[in-house]
Batch of 2 targets.
Target 1
Amino acid sequence: DAKTTQPPSMDCAEGRAANLPCNHSTISGNEYVYWYRQIHSQGPQYIIHGLKNNETNEMASLIITEDRKSSTLILPHATLRDTAVYYCIVRVRENTGNQFYFGTGTSLTVIP
Amino acid sequence: NAGVTQTPKFQVLKTGQSMTLQCAQDMNHEYMSWYRQDPGMGLRLIHYSVGAGITDQGEVPNGYNVSRSTTEDFPLRLLSAAPSQTSVYFCASSYGYRSSGANVLTFGAGSRLTVL
């Protein structure tokens, strides 16, 4: 039961911006969108999160649409080390707390 | 800070054997969870805990047991291992699960399990 929808794969030229889209049309009004990435078989690494406003940190920028039904993760100058699987997730509230469901993510390949 | 520590990193079992995957965190996180990752399947939630003494099932709980006797530890038990449980297992924790604010997950390095 996917909470988010992402394209399965994308390519990006080294040095260019990588724009990774995500649809989360069922997101609740007070829920955050989170982005993680996983390099090879390592544990997923947190990148950024946002609620309504666009966010930027040292790793990436997050653009959230006004209706909050989709978002885009931007890696401004992609490097070969950014090749990874990127997950967009939302928190699902259940009786005992908050659950995070991951989909299959987007496999980003940065091309030299 | 060690963060989230998983042991063992690699394990080979025979069908029917039991074992426990250990997960420990030193960040005083309330929320802890177990995921499994199979090729092409992304991460799927097995069990989670929102505090000591409280556990609940995720998407794929069958064949696994958990307990949370302390804030720091959240072991995952395989009662009778099956080849279908061959996977990479990740433990994750987060602070402040009850808050309306953001909950950032910290993951362990993973435990690769093979069941023959």
Target 2
Amino acid sequence: EAGVAQSPRYKIIEKRQSVAFWCNPISGHATLYWYQQILGQGPKLLIQFQNNGVVDDSQLPKDRFSAERLKGVDSTLKIQPAKLEDSAVYLCASSSPRRTPFGNTIYFGEGSWLTVV
Amino acid sequence: GENVEQHPSTLSVQEGDSAVIKCTYSDSASNYFPWYKQELGKGPQLIIDIRSNVGEKKDQRIAVTLNKTAKHFSLHITETQPEDSAVYFCAASPYNFNKFYFGSGTKLNVKP
């Protein structure tokens, strides 16, 4: 089974420029997450999709970040304009629909490393 | 919302020794607790998880224990090897939500 795919793996941009990250979740996984991981910290949820609808985007800085999941499969996360503090790893994760009272396992991609200079 | 605290932030052990990482959570509705291992330059990988209907789970050299009353859970790695060196994250997921709250991570260094 193929894992969560992300691209690009690495990106260096200047502040105020824009960048987009792409994610393809595990086949059949209806829930897709974007996390931001700053060096030395745990992942922080930016946005959660269920199919193509947004479940939670309360931590997404909407003045500069946007995300979409057209057709309920692939997703794109965009940052425009980028700030120095956006330097981080952007992790995409996916999980299958909840079928039990307990949480479902989420699987992460390798991450997209962003450096803003 | 849920708050997960993880200790220690760094842990250095000699090869062959045991390592223990502890996490506490705040929301009594949390009922699923996965642990992830993250190697340099890679995404987090699930290594073991536990659901609130059990108190302990083992998988070869790795075990996780859960104390629902005290709201804490721990990762135990026995007979550590240099390849166990990585950052480990705990997480908690509340009942009825497909959300995950992560600890701040523990950097484990296994010295040969």
